[in-house]
Design brief:
heterodimer, A: seven-stranded mixed β-sheet, four-stranded antiparallel β-sheet, B: about 110 residues, six-stranded mixed β-sheet
């Protein structure tokens, strides 16, 4: 049973560039959330996708956008990269977010912006 | 705003018992979750308290007191592999789907 898979594992970009991160949810899961985790801090919610729609968004600028495909996989796009965007980007999948349903995280994409 | 505070670091020896606290300032939420994250790894779900009281899962137990705005994770019979970061997290009411994570506690287990 494949868990949540993310690609790429590491990425180095220059300020001003654009990046696309990818996520395949755990089998049977239909909901995908993206989190940003700075070094030594807890994950911060970026947004959640369900039924190919952005269902909720955290406190992130419009430079952060996403997409969910019919097979439930998802992409996170970040435009006009800033140095402060350097972080671990985590994808988490779950079923229709019943209360208490645990999040299943991928190993993340480590993004470095230089 | 909503915030969950945890001690930044805790150190204990193998075989000991350690408690990681989580104090929060948030309006209504469904329950308190705990996640473990090893360096370079993904957060993995450990425990969930929907109601006040103690939940036990093997060597790990978790406690919630809504009246005290407080919860904790208790790790017994510590092993070296328990060295990791631990996060508490809540999901709020009112149609919100996001989880808010605590500041995280780095646990070091010494031989």
């Amino acid at each position: 049973d494949a868990g949540v898979t993310q690609s790429p594992t590491h990425l180095i970009k220059t300020r001003g560039q654009q990046v696309t991160l990818r996520c395949s949810p755990k089998s049977g899961h239909d909901t995908v959330s993206w989190y940003q985790q700075a070094l030594g801090q807890g994950p911060q919610f970026i947004f959640q996708y369900y039924e190919e729609e952005e269902r909720q968004r955290g406190n992130f600028p419009d430079r952060f956008s996403g997409h969910q495909f019919p097979n439930y996989s998802s992409e996170l796009n970040v435009n006009a990269l800033l140095l402060g965007d350097s972080a671990l980007y985590l994808c988490a999948s779950s079923t229709q977010q019943a209360t208490g349903a645990p999040l299943h995280f991928g190993n993340g994409t480590r993004l470095t912006v230089t | 705003g909503q915030s969950l505070e945890q001690p930044s670091e805790v150190t204990a020896v193998e075989g000991a018992i350690v408690q990681i606290n989580c104090t929060y300032q948030t309006s209504g939420f469904y329950g308190l979750s705990w996640y473990q994250q090893h360096d370079g790894g993904a957060p993995t779900f450990l425990s969930y308290n929907a109601l006040d009281g103690l939940e036990e899962t093997g060597r790990f137990s978790s406690f919630l007191s809504r009246s005290d705005s407080y919860g904790y994770l208790l790790l017994q019979e510590l092993q070296m592999k328990d060295s990791a970061s631990y996060f508490c997290a809540v999901r709020g009411f009112s149609g919100t789907y996001k989880y808010i994570f605590g500041t995280g506690t780095r646990l070091k287990v010494l031989a």
